[in-house]
């Protein structure tokens, strides 16, 4: 499998290096097979018997020998060059390889002293793998040195680049599996070279591992001609370096030469950019590594070829407990690595096995970048006061909330200019989302060609824009996981594109909270704007508030959802979110002009409560209970609720109306289900136990029912929200179409407050009439009714 681009030459490694590298690789392979199969007899001190074998064989062998090979050779170059390095392991179920290598280097025993580097520790390492009470089969938070959840494919390369941003001394190697390379997010990630700054960022060395097969099919990149693959990689901005074969000595020599050549090229790129000011976008190296799937495992099983085929993907010998031939094959396989040469009688790795391993934090499993909380510094969050909007009374303004937030984020960007540990990510929407004040402090990161008409492009910029939500999410996750801070701004409807990525990150945070050696990370902060109620110009395709539902289905200890109703509340929420740790904060806020309801001090107090009565908006008096509660969450629902309250004040002045605004959705849950949940007595005091509650909500209405179904007053709760009725229309017509408008809310009050249905029949009829008039007006004039467009809070 050698070719003209392969840099291997005989003798690149001397005999000692070759012998020690091969010993380390064989040891890692032995430990990997042992994890998949054995629950006893780890050193084969007696012949294998069925009772030594796990009752359920779980794990993935096919990718493992290739990952072990890469780990071995990374050890060599890290030690030889004293590199600060991290590796992201893309192939999904490569857990046996990385666990084996961290055990060999001692980092696994550092975090799990009971799993020592000896016979007893090896037995525990084997038994715990894919075993109840143990560790997963994939690379997970429990694996030291990892920042990447390996259970889902497609995100490794984006994570690697995120780790490299603003880490000028870091090398991030990234193994990309050829199955993973077929995913859309990974395909977009190759474009990250156009955003990697060789001056202020580190370097990423992708290693495309082509072992030829997925679970049951060949992989695309392994089956296209090499010149076609080279053209693809060169088109992405890389220079490919090929390594391949099935002879271990040849492959060791080739991979060592490829890594040296790659690292020399990276060093030259960085020197030219940093010392000589070279501004041309470089071509970064990529190693293409071809090795057989399941290399060094059983070649044939039950008369069928396994090594080098899809059959090696998971467990090559599946009936070891029941089939004597399989048991003998497993023992032969394990002994083929010559474990007596690799481990002494006490199960300790021999010095030759450990010769290539670097020391201390240079070990891949001990890199502080893989435990980002070790490097995390508090974000210098500036005061909110200079950015707050002044209001003399509720209903002032209007202001664009995200534009106000943009000024605040610009001050955060300025405060981090020297330390460079804060970035804002978004899919080409910074201007659209009114965050363009950021450009006062930095530009858009860009390494590709520029023309005279471009604006705000900058080689050293820290606003990250690319039209791929997957890439923005992956970059930000890699950035946060290695100890930095950031915000992801997106149109609300298209946050769904990263539903699965968000879920995986939430699982990562939940798991790390249970690992005492994992340090806290800065929270992942979503700003969802251009939201459902003000996508009247883009239409139905841009109208979907369901990301909130997705997030609130996840681990309560991690997730937070905020719906600030105005600019000052958005500032207060953002300041709180940027200071938080180990959370996923979802903030939904509008970018269109809206009324200012709260001063900054009131907004802070409201955010601290999470939900509260706006006494100035209602008509209740202290001497009696309210007749009805108008509740709201979200900027447009708040507007419609206050307009409804205004109508009720004018038409039914005797009615006692309480207005409640909810900014933190989790407050609706009981405290046993979420840390922010309200106890029953507090919830009942706010919403009452027996009065009608008309709740105007930003998203799908059934979420509010799900959050509050256990409350005593739930039978009295009536929720209005988005019903998937959307189109290109006027802003008010959107709320009318979904029955969230002020006139419908007033009708709900008439229908649900006992006695009003008869007493206020004229008001109900008037509300129906104005809705009918709206339908005619909007279709004739293309604008909202004057009494709606010109309404203000008196």
Automatic annotation (TrEMBL):
A Pfam family the protein falls into: XFP_N
Cofactor(s) required, per the database record: thiamine diphosphate
Q: What is its EC number?
A: 4.1.2.-
Q: Which superkingdom does the taxonomy of this entry point to?
A: Bacteria
Q: Whose protein is this, by species?
A: Streptomyces halobius
Q: EC top class, in one word?
A: lyase
The family annotation for this protein states: Belongs to the XFP family.
Matching SUPFAM superfamilies? Thiamin diphosphate-binding fold (THDP-binding)
Identify this protein by name: Probable phosphoketolase
């Amino acid at each position: 499998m050698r070719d003209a681009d392969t840099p291997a030459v005989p003798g690149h490694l001397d005999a000692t290096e070759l012998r020690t590298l091969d010993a380390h690789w064989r040891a890692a392979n032995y430990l990997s097979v042992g994890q998949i199969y054995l629950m006893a007899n780890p050193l084969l001190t007696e012949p294998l018997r069925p009772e030594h074998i796990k009752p359920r064989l779980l794990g993935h062998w096919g990718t493992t020998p290739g990952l072990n090979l890469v780990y071995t050779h990374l050890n060599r170059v890290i030690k030889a060059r004293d590199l600060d390095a991290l590796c992201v392991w893309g192939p999904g179920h490569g857990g046996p390889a990385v666990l084996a290598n961290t055990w060999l280097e001692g980092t696994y025993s550092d975090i799990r002293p009971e799993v020592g580097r000896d016979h007893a520790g090896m037995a525990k390492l084997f038994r715990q793998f894919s075993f109840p009470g143990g560790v997963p089969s994939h690379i997970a938070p429990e694996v030291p040195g990892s920042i990447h959840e390996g259970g889902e494919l497609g995100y490794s390369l984006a994570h690697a680049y995120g780790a490299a941003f603003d880490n000028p001394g870091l090398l991030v190697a990234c193994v990309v599996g050829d199955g993973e390379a077929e995913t859309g997010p990974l395909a977009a990630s190759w474009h990250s070279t156009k955003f990697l700054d060789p001056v202020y960022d580190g370097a990423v060395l992708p290693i495309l591992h082509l072992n030829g097969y997925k679970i049951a099919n060949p992989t695309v990149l392994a089956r296209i001609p090499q010149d076609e693959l080279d053209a693809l990689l060169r088109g992405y901005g890389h220079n490919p370096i090929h390594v391949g074969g099935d002879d271990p000595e040849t492959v060791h020599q080739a991979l060592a030469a490829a890594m040296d050549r790659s690292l020399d090229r990276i060093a030259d790129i960085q020197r030219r950019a940093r010392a000589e000011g070279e501004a041309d976008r470089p071509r970064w190296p990529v190693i293409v590594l071809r090795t057989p799937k399941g290399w060094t495992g059983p070649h044939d099983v039950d008369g069928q070829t396994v090594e080098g085929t899809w059959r090696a993907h998971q467990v090559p010998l599946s009936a070891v407990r029941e089939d004597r031939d399989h048991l003998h094959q497993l023992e032969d396989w394990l002994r083929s690595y010559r474990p007596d040469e690799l481990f002494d009688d006490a199960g300790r790795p021999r010095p030759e096995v450990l010769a290539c391993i670097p020391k201390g934090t240079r070990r891949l499993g001990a890199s502080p970048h893989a435990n980002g909380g070790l490097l995390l510094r508090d974000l210098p969050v500036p005061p909110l006061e200079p950015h707050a909007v002044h209001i003399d009374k509720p209903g002032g303004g209007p202001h664009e909330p995200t534009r106000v937030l943009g000024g605040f984020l610009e001050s955060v960007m300025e405060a981090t200019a020297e330390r460079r540990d804060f970035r804002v990510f978004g899919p080409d929407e910074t201007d659209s989302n009114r965050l363009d004040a950021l450009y006062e402090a930095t530009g858009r990161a860009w390494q590709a060609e520029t023309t005279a008409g471009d604006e705000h492009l900058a080689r050293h910029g820290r606003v990250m824009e690319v039209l791929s939500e997957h890439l923005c999410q992956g970059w930000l996750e890699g950035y946060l996981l290695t100890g930095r801070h950031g915000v992801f701004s997106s149109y609300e409807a298209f946050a769904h594109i990263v539903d699965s990525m968000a879920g995986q990150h939430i699982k990562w945070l939940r798991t790390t909270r249970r690992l005492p050696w994992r340090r806290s990370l800065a929270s992942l902060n979503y700003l969802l704007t251009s939201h459902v109620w003000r996508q009247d110009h883009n239409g139905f395709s841009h109208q979907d508030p369901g990301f909130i539902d997705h997030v609130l289905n996840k681990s309560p200890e991690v997730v937070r959802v905020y719906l600030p109703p105005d600019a000052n509340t958005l500032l207060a929420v953002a300041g709180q979110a940027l200071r938080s740790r180990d959370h996923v904060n979802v903030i939904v806020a509008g970018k269109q002009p809206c009324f200012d309801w709260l001063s900054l001090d009131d907004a802070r107090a409201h955010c601290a409560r999470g939900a509260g009565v706006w006494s100035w908006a209602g008509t209740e008096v202290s001497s009696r209970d309210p007749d009805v509660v108008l509740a709201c969450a979200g900027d447009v629902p708040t507007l419609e609720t206050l307009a409804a309250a205004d109508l009720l004040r004018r038409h039914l002045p005797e009615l006692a109306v309480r207005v409640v605004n909810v900014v933190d959705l989790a407050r609706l849950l009981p405290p046993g289900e979420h840390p922010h949940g309200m106890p029953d007595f507090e919830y009942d005091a706010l919403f009452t136990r027996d009065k009608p509650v008309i709740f105007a909500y930003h998203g799908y209405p059934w979420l509010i029912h799900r959050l509050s179904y256990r409350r005593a007053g739930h039978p009295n709760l009536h929720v209005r929200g988005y019903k998937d009725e959307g189109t290109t229309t006027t802003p008010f017509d959107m709320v009318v179409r979904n029955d969230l408008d002020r006139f419908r809310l007033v009708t709900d009050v008439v229908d649900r407050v006992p006695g009003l249905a008869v007493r206020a029949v004229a008001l109900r009829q008037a509300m129906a009439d104005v809705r009918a008039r709206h339908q005619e007006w909007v279709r004739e004039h293309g604008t909202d009714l004057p009494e709606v467009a010109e309404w203000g809070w008196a």
